[in-house]
Amino acid sequence: MARNKLPPRPRTAAVVDAGADAAGADTGLARLRELGYTQELKRDLSVLSNFAFSFSIISVLTGVTTLYSTGLTFGGPATMTYAWFIAGGFSMAVGLSMAEICSSFPTSGGLYFWSARLSGKHWAPFTSWITGWMRV
Prior knowledge:
The chain has 136 residues and is mostly helical. The protein has helices at 27-35, 47-58, 60-74, 76-104, 110-119, 124-134.
């Protein structure tokens, strides 16, 4: 996949440290310098914090309680079981795609920045604006 080559912006932003590889070189820091940013924040989430953040975004209990009776009434237990795994597979594909993009552009304004960089110079302001309003 070819990336859009925009000139690096000479400003700083809050970013996430991508960690170091086995040789000790910080590849996240090198990628940020390539994008024209300086590192300001470090990632420091415990396993419990990461789980709590992910669980609150997923909101499993809200979705299960509102759609459980509808699924059982119109589809039955087998349909709900298969649908759970199919939807989980598609959600995993979306998550893996976003993780790949995130590792390419490790900035704190992730979605806005990704949409601007991936859409090109002409559409960048519009796609960032649409992305912001879709996330509200």
